[in-house]
């Protein structure tokens, strides 16, 4: 049995679809419509609507031309979208599906349906606006934005990213960070992406230095988040990276100015007490060498060196006759000297640095077992910077002549560190010192060139 489906007038009315039969030749006019079509276009009665011509319904004459052309060529139009105007001349999106029929008397007519698609169009337009908005936002952003799939392949980038790597966006799709950045750096990015894919935990505001293809270094701040599909499965990552180089340079310059100003203050001590000044310089050299083995960042290293260069600045307040006194100091004189720590801390405690400058100085005579001064701090209460500074200080002091004591030499200093290893002094740092001395052929590496 043949299956047939008849869309009759009442069914079409029920579905809200306009049905029409329109005479094209010899005279254009609506022959018949269902009641939905006139209603859709704001006419109160079919009779009133029949006075209208089809081309008058098109808002834009170009649409009518295109419609007629398709009809002439193929004899039918399928879901032709056009903007119509209703009786009040208000726009209305419709879709026309119709066929041309030639009758025996050579007259031509058009039969078909007109659907009101304004609702769909509104959603479509809203989506298009949102898409344009997002595209515009991404492309005008002075930040690199990139989307990657689960295999760390780039699926989308914005203009800024493309400019940064010197390629067109379409040349970047399907590639990975390994195609644009040095191996080590790309590996870090790869690890970060994989961590997000595994855990779903975003990485927010990570500061990193990036080597660009042209060899310049940039300082950037990156935030990466997981991308989910509807089911909740992570399908990739989205990242945004902001260039902070200019800001970082300004910060660096500010920091360097402050550091240089403090070095000048330190140098004033040289005039009064050249011994303490050169002691501090050598201690800074030892501390810098130790920290060099720890893979610290630039700022932390600078902080430790500066603390070392100024750690005994408080000795300015100690009378020279006590500082330079040969032989044993009295209890009172010793306590006077000990005060140099708190004095120096008082001078520098209000200076704002991105590293623990004042605290390192404050702790430089503290020992792990609590036998140090001034606060008798113990173990974990003592920061790593201070542990390094303490050991550097002991090493320098024992290997240089002091007014009240001859230099005892590297071997004796080594014995002191071995005895105090893990008791007074941080074991890891002591081991680094011995490794550095061994590397220097058993000699004091801080004496070279000083
Ligand atoms: Fe000191
Ligand atoms: Fe010292």
Polypeptide structure, described:
The structure is a single chain. The chain is α+β, with helices and mostly antiparallel strands. The chain has 3 domains: 9-122, Beta-Lactamase (2-Layer Sandwich), CATH 3.30.450.20; 141-243, Beta-Lactamase, CATH 3.30.450; 247-439, Hypothetical protein af1432, CATH 1.10.3210. Helices cover 47% and strands 19% of the residues. It contains 19 helices and 10 strands. The protein has helices spanning 9-15, 36-40, 46-49, 54-57, 61-74, 118-140, 159-165, 169-172, 183-199, 245-272, 274-292, 298-310, 320-323, 331-338, 340-348, 357-362, 384-399, 409-420, 427-439; strands spanning 17-25, 29-33, 76-85, 91-102, 108-116, 144-149, 154-157, 203-211, 217-228, 234-243. The strands form 2 sheets. A 5-stranded antiparallel β-sheet has the order 2-1-5-4-3, with helices on both faces. Strand 6 (144-149) and strand 7 (154-157) form a beta hairpin. The longest helix is centred in the middle third of the chain and has 28 residues, at 245-272. The N and C termini lie far apart (108 Å).
Could you give the topology of this structure?
Layout: H1 9-15, E1 17-25, E2 29-33, H2 36-40, H3 46-49, H4 54-57, H5 61-74, E3 76-85, E4 91-102, E5 108-116, H6 118-140, E6 144-149, E7 154-157, H7 159-165, H8 169-172, H9 183-199, E8 203-211, E9 217-228, E10 234-243, H10 245-272, H11 274-292, H12 298-310, H13 320-323, H14 331-338, H15 340-348, H16 357-362, H17 384-399, H18 409-420, H19 427-439
Antiparallel strand pairs: 1-2, 1-5, 3-4, 4-5, 6-7, 6-10, 8-9, 9-10
Bound molecules: fe (ii) ion (FE2) (2 copies).
């Amino acid at each position: 049995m043949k299956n047939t489906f008849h869309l009759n007038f009442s069914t079409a009315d029920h579905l809200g679809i306009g049905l029409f039969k329109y005479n094209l030749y010899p005279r254009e006019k609506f022959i018949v419509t269902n009641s939905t079509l006139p209603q859709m276009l704001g006419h109160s009665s079919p009779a009133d609507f029949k006075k209208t011509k089809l081309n008058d319904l098109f808002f834009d004459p170009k649409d009518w031309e295109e419609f007629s052309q398709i009809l002439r060529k193929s004899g039918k139009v399928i879901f032709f979208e056009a903007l119509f105007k209703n009786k009040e001349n208000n726009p209305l999106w419709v879709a026309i599906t119709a066929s041309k029929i030639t009758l025996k008397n050579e007259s031509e007519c058009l039969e078909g349906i007109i659907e009101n698609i304004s609702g769909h169009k509104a959603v479509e337009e809203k989506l298009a606006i949102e898409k344009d908005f997002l595209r515009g936002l991404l492309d005008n952003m002075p930040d690199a934005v990139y989307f990657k799939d689960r295999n760390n392949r780039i699926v989308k980038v914005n203009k800024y990213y493309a400019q940064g790597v010197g390629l067109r966006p379409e040349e970047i799709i399907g590639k990975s960070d390994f195609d644009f950045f040095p191996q080590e750096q790309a590996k870090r990015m790869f690890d970060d992406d994989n961590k997000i894919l595994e855990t779903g935990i975003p990485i927010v505001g990570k500061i990193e230095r990036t080597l660009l293809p042209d060899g310049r270094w940039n300082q950037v701040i990156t935030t990466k988040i997981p991308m989910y599909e509807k089911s909740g499965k992570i399908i990739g990552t989205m990242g945004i990276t902001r260039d902070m180089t200019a800001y970082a340079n300004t910060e660096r310059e500010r920091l360097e100015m402050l550091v240089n100003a403090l070095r000048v203050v330190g140098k004033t001590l040289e005039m009064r007490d050249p011994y303490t000044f050169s002691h501090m310089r050598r201690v800074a050299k030892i501390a810098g060498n130790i920290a060099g083995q720890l893979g610290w960042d630039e700022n932390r290293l600078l902080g430790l060196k500066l603390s070392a260069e100024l750690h005994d600045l408080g000795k300015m307040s100690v009378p020279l006759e006590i500082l330079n006194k040969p032989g044993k100091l009295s209890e009172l004189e010793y306590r006077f000297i000990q005060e140099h720590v708190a004095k120096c801390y008082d001078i520098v405690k209000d200076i704002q640095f991105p590293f623990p400058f004042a605290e390192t100085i404050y702790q430089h005579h503290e020992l792990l077992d609590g036998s140090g001064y001034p606060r008798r701090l113990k173990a974990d209460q003592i920061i790593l910077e201070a542990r390094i500074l303490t050991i550097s200080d002991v090493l320098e002091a024992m290997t240089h002549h002091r007014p009240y004591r001859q230099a005892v030499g590297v071997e004796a200093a080594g014995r002191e560190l071995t005895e105090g290893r893990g008791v007074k002094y941080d074991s890891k740092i002591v081991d680094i010192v011995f490794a550095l001395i061994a590397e220097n052929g058993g000699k004091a590496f801080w004496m070279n060139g000083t």
